[in-house]
Write a structure and sequence with these properties.
5 helices, 53% helix, 105 residues, mainly alpha
Length: 105
């Protein structure tokens, strides 16, 4: 972004670092001012997960999905077959359209 480091750029960056102390934007429970409620007390355990800098394990069932409606009736195989037939027909129609356009040119 800044290109090569020339002595002037290096001196400028050192000057900027010297006038501004490093910032730590993370706020912990112990770092809250008096009277400010914590995320946990305001929003419960979900608010506690929203605090920056806190690493939580992911939900184990985040990718869980209910079974499709066709599973209850046993028609999933038939629906899949119909879908594949439709896809094959659409591909054939696309190929025929391209061939017709090529023949026109």
């Amino acid at each position: 972004m800044w290109g090569s480091q020339t002595p002037a750029k290096k001196e400028f960056f050192e000057w900027v670092d010297s006038i501004s102390p490093p910032r730590d934007d993370r706020v912990t429970e112990s770092g809250l001012p008096e009277g400010v409620p914590s995320m946990t007390s305001r929003y419960g355990k979900f608010g506690d997960h929203a605090v920056m800098g806190v690493k939580r394990p992911p939900c184990l069932d985040a990718e869980a999905q209910p079974p499709p409606p066709c599973a209850a009736t046993g028609e999933c195989g038939d629906l899949l077959k119909l879908g594949r037939n439709f896809e094959t027909g659409a591909q054939r129609a696309r190929d025929l359209t391209r061939a017709a356009l090529t023949a026109i040119d």
